[in-house]
Amino acid sequence: MSYIGKEDEVQQRPYWRWSKVDFLPEESFQNWNTYLSALSQIYSRFNDRLLSRSDDANEITQLRKQSENDMKRCLTWWDLTWFGFGSVIGAGIFVLTGQEAHHHAGPAIVLSYVASGISAMLSVFCYTEFAVEIPVAGGSFAYLRIELGDFVAFITAGNILLESIVGGAAVARSWTSYFATLLDRQPDSLRIPKGNYLLDPIAVAVLAIAATIAMISTKKTSQLNWIATALNTLVILFVLIAGFAHANTSNLTPFLPHGAKGIFQAAAIVYFAYGGFDNIATMAEETKNPSRDIPLGLLGSMSIITVVYCLMALSLSMMQKYTEIDPKAAYSMAFQSVGMKWAKYLVALGALKGMTTVLLVGALGQARYTTHIARAHMIPPWFALVHPKTGTPINATLLMTISSGLIAFFSSLDVLASLLSVSTLFIFMMMAVALLVRRYYVREVTPGINQLKLVIFLLVIIASSMGTSAYWGLRPNGWVGYVVTIPLWFLGTMGISIFLPQQRTPKVWGVPLVPWLPSLSVAINIFLMGSLGTPAFIRFGICTVAMLVYYILVGVHATYDMAHQQQKLDALKVKNEDEDKEEKA
What we know:
Elements: H1 7-11, H2 20-23, H3 32-40, H4 42-51, H5 56-62, H6 77-88, H7 91-105, H8 109-133, H9 140-147, H10 150-182, E1 192-194, E2 197-199, H11 201-216, H12 218-245, H13 259-270, H14 278-281, H15 290-319, H16 330-337, H17 343-375, H18 394-410, H19 413-440, H20 448-474, H21 480-499, H22 516-530, H23 534-584
Antiparallel strand pairs: 1-2
Helix pairs in contact: 4-23, 6-12, 6-15, 6-17, 7-13, 7-15, 8-13, 8-15, 8-19, 8-22, 9-10, 9-19, 10-11, 10-17, 10-18, 10-19, 10-23, 11-17, 11-18, 12-15, 12-17, 16-17, 17-18, 19-22, 19-23, 20-21, 20-22
């Protein structure tokens, strides 16, 4: 694949091609000598990538040429709103609610959803402003590449891919459990025992079907999502009405069986239930009117979803004692416990529909993230190609589906969920930091002293938030540490508000109460990360080390070559223009 701007030649090449140049076109990978030479320059190249930042025009215009064909602009606010419902309501509410109510929060699971919902809405504000200003398929990856630089964007890209792969696998395995319930069998009965694993071929098949639909047409996927989500909405209404009709307030006692710590432990896990909304931001490139449609689709759907989640969690807790809730099929078993055995089939069917739409919308969003990451050459650019007939990134969809399928075949949801939450919270935290940088720093405009102040204030906000989270983990019943950490967070945020003028004003829609809301988003996301168990961070650390190894061996060289090749082309273009002017003169 060519990445040197010869669009006319590139357009004529067939979509299905497998040569080395399609996967490793950069100069550093032409042969072993060039690769060894690139490795010898790792220090200077890493410094170059660490400090380099993209810009709006490059992400919106230049990088899109790597896909050779454009995605079709076919989505409206109506599509995005239903995509919001379809991408979020599924595995989280039907699976994690019972799991976390049983193990950590008890009836206070409703407060866990309130806490994670507030954090999610703060992140939604940040995503909406960025998506309106930078309507590209890359979502948070593109936004962070512009504001925080190439290296930070790579770490984020790795976590995006991790979140997408693991999230798809988690939902697919949940689909199998509920399908078994629908057949009046035990949740694990359709899996194949093999040593320490329960193999799940059904989960793999479901992933493959969802991906196939997503590859055929974005608009048709949207239409199918409308139908499935509408049916799922009816089931949710039934769950709420029937659940509260069979409510027993005695089941809410004790309300806090594991104290406040249990609430936040559960909040950090059920945060996964809100994670799908970022898929909507990746569809900006296919939206007819991003400045109008994205705020309506994102903010509208997430506001309703937050209320629905809290009501569903409350209805479950009032129907059945938290100690008796089935962690694997909570709602179905809860209805059976109140004498509505038939209702468990309706709930299982609704859950299946919800999880199916999560997989459908996830297949769309994950592939678009992957496409833009490949456009930047952080993974092979072959995955950036958009099919000329379907207008969809088939190669990227195949990559994510095959990866998710391999994990879903072997892994269990409890291991996946905590790892996924760390990754999701990390990305959302970085998005809030990026928004503060976007508002208060503009290259070649912001004075150096103000840039230094911004860095200091951001470090104070992040460090104080980490201190609060650490103190909570070490002494959940203490208070002395908060006397130090919370005022420091307040002073850091106030410092930005008082001493730094905003350098950029959103053109259409912006986050209100800046810097307070983005700073609060940073604090809450870090706090929720600290509420997760040690094993989740060990897995997260292992994955991060693997990402860094890949970056040192491949990523830094590919992105370095691409950036400097583009600089040479720009310089050549300027030179040619100057020569033309001289000839005319």
